[in-house]
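no rush on this but wanted to send it before i forget. theres a chain ive been looking at and ive put its sequence and its fold in token form underneath. please have a look and point out which stretches look like helix strand or loop to you. thanks a lot i owe you, the record is right below:
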Amino acid sequence: MMKQALEGMKVVDLSQVLAGPYCTMVLGDMGADVIKVEKYPIGDDTRSMGPYIDEESYMYMMVNRNKRGVCLNLKEEAGLRVLYDLVKDADVFVENYRPGTTKKLGIDYDTLKEINPNLIYCSISGYGQTGPYSKKGGFDIMAQGLSGMIDMTGDKEGKPAKVGIAIHDIAAAQTAIQSILSAYIHRLKGGEGQYIDISLVDAGLAWTVWEAAAYFGKGEVPKRNGTAHRVSAPYQGFKTKDGFILIGAGNQKLWEKLCLYVLKKPEWIKDQRFLTNSIRAENVAELEAEMEQVLTKESSDYWLQLLDQYGIPSGPILSYDEALNNEQIQSRDMILEYEHPVGGLMKTLGFPAKFSETPGKLTKPAPLLGQHNKEVLTELGYAVEEVERFVDEGVLHGRNDLVDATGR
């Protein structure tokens, strides 16, 4: 049986909703033992978000696979003691409380470092642990607004638009993953544990490299431009007879092939408005109008086949359901099926990285609330009777394999 890259890594996950859980999900996909500690007694806020399958949130299940779950009351001394026991031999600790909250709870980095000096502690918050906004609550949409992303997204003549996905949450998750793994490699080389401060705003802003180049290099402020690229053309969506397609002829060779063989407009190669990539980008509105006069005469399929024939990058604009059923996506195993103890046969997204030797694996579904209370605590040395007493005393909640078959 193939090993996984992160087998042997223990992660204690106190995060909820998206950025933190997505980070720890990926660590679990790669073989880490992720123990999700949910707040008492309601669990992760995502559990209250539909759609539901037999009262289990599909949203929750999407980003909490490959984890074991406990529901622990950290306001009780016994609950805090259990968390400290979990941390003693942990490699990684992830949380996304508002800055200052972990100090009040007694689970801040300075406290846990005393228990485990080798701990890699990662905090994910809206604005980071420092700065004038640090104490503010911040969700993805606020981060998109502060980073300039909403202002630069949408049609030229339209309103500012939020990016279609929670892009700052995912950017923060990806930044946390690479940071945790960097810190883990450092520790494996004989280094120490450390604290990592991740901000949703910083993580998303770091992805705006083209926009920063335009601003720092020429003072240009990126504006809404629909699907068009800021410095390359044609590189956008175009209207056809029956829909829209994407064309990316972003260098001179591709542009000339497009003019000669696809659009049959050789005169555009010498047209002063379209001579070079940068000039075409400056005149993108005229270019779009000229191209659509030709493209609207035939169907999307007609143009996509012709573009493929001449090796010009192009593609359809799919709805999300079309994307999930697309042959390319299906062939890459990006849709997986698994059995959930309540929901039955479920579908989830696959692993985007394809490893030859240490592939990601779907080893367990997202936990029911408190499903692994008994399993995790007995591993820490607690007696079954003590775990049962914790349930009665309000220290643990949910399925601890001592309550009932459904975990409620």
Observations:
- The chain has two domains: 10-207+332-392, 235-321.
- Residues 235-321 form a domain with the formyl-coa transferase, domain 3 fold (CATH 3.30.1540.10).
- Residues 400-408 have pLDDT under 50 and may be disordered.
- The longest strand covers residues 33-39.
